[in-house]
Write a structure and sequence with these properties.
Rossmann fold; 10 strands; 488 residues; alpha/beta; 15 helices; 2 domains
């Protein structure tokens, strides 16, 4: 039986390769035909790769081909394997004494010509644009100068009860103009929930998610088992939105040519090395969500926050850094590619971001730093992404690094170090930093400044830090308490 399953799997991979269009095998005279090795094809193991949709043979093979063609564009023949994705890679490091091989970080307040940034004007007009350019070119990729228009539709409006709070929930669809390339359709999916008792616009916390809740129905009119964070937000008189990342850009490299906003804008062609990856695409979708909020009278657009966990923590931080319309962010366990320092070698390292399962989050140019270059060659690091959020408040969160179910891979101490190193920019702009450079004991909140940090006592989850974030956020976000609107 096992042999039969393996044979079926092998045949499905062969069929997947055979069914690929010729343009996927070779595009342009400058590129050589892409031939995958047996070791590469072996990556398409459904027991290891389903978390990014790569258990489907066709999706997996197309992802491998996309990554290989990007390596050809960069003239790279091999990459260092990451421990989270390759069994032959060195094991992840959890020894703090070996965690900082490159301790010298780029100074966010030194211009490229070596001159010190001493005023807010110099930061906004000179240094910040330099940092943005580096992140665009080398890390997350550039958003095209012209992207299609998005027309938002309120697909449905329903009265619900979330826990004990009556609410109005809108199912929203952002139809992206695909007239330039009708082969790909992109419809951004989002829900918006606001207190039914609200007499005016309310603050909103928008969460990144892989999916949106199903439409309300008679059987769901009362959601007593709604997540506690939703109920805590409603108790404050705020609302919340849930943005579906998968409706913006697929969670794999195959989607660059066949789906999503990147495939649409590139008209089904391969990315260039500095083209945007999925994180910037998701951030673009969040920007379009903010465009919608600016048309909805139920939303206080001056008080819209962001929240995301793990890969969506990365997306929340990237969005906050680039779009200054967002007021606050809760960045949970974002790890490498998010708030954690790239130069830090603890838990998941930079090399994992260049793997078949994760490279799609980043610009193609980022692959260089897991090949001929290292993290120390990056012109920027995560502390400068946090600094791009200044002077707005950011809550950096992670779980415990103790025990089998810890948050070690995300390396919360590495995110703390980045938050510390972002402090000088916040101080330059007249705001408070963390107030210390010493990692506090677990469960100790640092929330007195505009940069905040807390490690909770559990593993890779955002749930335990929601109450602390809401205490922090309440200093900046102000709504009308909804206690009077409770259903008894």
């Amino acid at each position: 039986m096992r042999i039969a399953r393996l044979l079926k799997r092998f045949l499905s991979v062969i069929v997947a390769v055979a069914c690929l269009p010729l343009s996927a095998i070779a595009q342009g005279a400058a590129m050589s035909p892409i031939v995958l090795t047996q070791a590469q094809v072996a990556v398409c193991d459904p027991h290891r790769t389903c978390d990014h949709g790569l258990c489907d043979a066709t999706t997996c093979i197309q992802t491998l081909l996309d990554r290989e063609q990007m390596m050809q564009q960069l003239h790279i023949t091999s990459l260092r394997p990451g421990p989270g994705n390759h069994k032959d890679a060195p094991p992840p490091n959890f020894d703090e004494s070996k965690a900082n091989p490159y301790p010298n970080l780029p100074d966010p307040l030194i211009l490229n010509n070596g001159k010190k940034v001493t005023t807010a004007k110099m930061w906004w007009q000179q240094r910040r644009p330099q940092i943005v350019e580096y992140f665009d070119r080398e890390v997350y990729g550039r958003v095209p100068a012209h992207t299609p228009k998005v027309i938002w539709e309120v697909a449905s409006t329903a009265n619900e009860t979330v826990g004990k709070y009556p609410v109005i929930t809108k199912q929203l669809v952002g139809h992206v103009d695909n007239s330039s390339y009708p082969a790909i359709t992109v419809d951004i999916r989002m829900t918006l929930t606001t207190p039914a008792s609200a007499s005016g616009p309310v603050p909103i916390i928008m969460q990144f998610s892989s999916s949106t809740p199903p439409p309300p129905s008679a059987s769901r009119a009362v959601r007593a088992a709604a997540p506690l964070w939703e109920q805590e937000i409603l108790e404050k008189g705020w609302g919340y939105a849930i943005l579906s990342t998968m409706s913006i850009q697929a969670e794999n490299g195959a989607g660059f040519r066949s789906a999503g906003i990147i495939g649409l804008v590139n008209k089904g062609q391969f990315r260039k090395p500095d083209d945007w990856g999925a994180l910037r695409a998701w951030a673009w979708g969040a920007d379009r969500a903010m465009d919608y909020f600016e048309t909805d009278k139920s939303v206080d657009t001056k008080q819209v926050g962001l929240q995301g966990h793990s890969r969506y923590g990365k997306a929340a931080l990237v969005t906050m850094a680039y779009d200054q319309r967002f007021a606050i962010a809760y960045v949970s366990s974002s790890g490498i590619g998010g708030a954690k320092l790239f130069r830090r070698n603890f838990g998941e390292p930079l090399e994992d971001l260049a793997s078949e399962r994760e490279y799609h989050w980043m610009a193609g140019n980022f692959l260089k730093y897991a090949g001929p270059l290292t993290a120390n060659d990056l012109p920027v690091d995560a502390h400068e992404l946090i600094a791009m959020c200044a002077p707005r408040p950011v809550f950096i969160s992670g779980g415990s690094t103790i025990g089998a179910a810890s948050d070690n891979a995300a390396d919360p101490p590495g995110s703390f170090m980045a938050a510390v190193a972002a402090g000088p920019v916040y101080r330059l702009l007249g705001k408070k930093d963390l107030g210390t450079s010493t990692l506090p004991p677990i469960a100790t909140p640092l929330i007195d400044g505009e940069i905040a940090f807390r490690q909770h006592t559990e593993g890779h989850t955002d749930v335990p830090n929601w109450p602390t974030f809401l205490i922090f956020a309440s200093r900046y976000i102000h709504g009308h308490a909804a206690n009077a609107a409770i259903v008894h």
